[in-house]
Design brief:
Layout lengths: L1 H17 L4 E2 L16 E7 L5 E2 L10 E7 L6 E4 L7 E3 L3 E8 L3 E4 L6 E9 L2
Length: 126
Amino acid sequence: MRLLTVSLLAAAMAFSAHAQTLGMIGPSFAPSSVKADNFDAVFDVKVNTLPSIPVLWNQTADARWDGVVCNVGKENRGAVKVEPTARFGYLDLNTCTMFSNFHMLDLTTVDPDKEWTARVYLRARK
């Protein structure tokens, strides 16, 4: 009986860790307020139903970026994070957020079966 109780408790804790709620990202602003000329690279990423898409990979250890991520799809919320230990924060439709001095960028869906489009603006940090 004790083994069953411990097993159920462990399963409940594991399930709640996978089902973390997403929080808001701040600051947020409209895509029309972003000036692409201020960035070194601008590209769109179709974020599908994979658990997470690492956008920046094979970076040197000292590579750092400043950037803006916008949700420019026709529907659906997206999720983004820039630190391995951070939680994903959600990004509403037609909304952007910015990050400074980051090394990684992960994008994922909020709802498992609803893809979204991210427009990513990057500037190398000097």
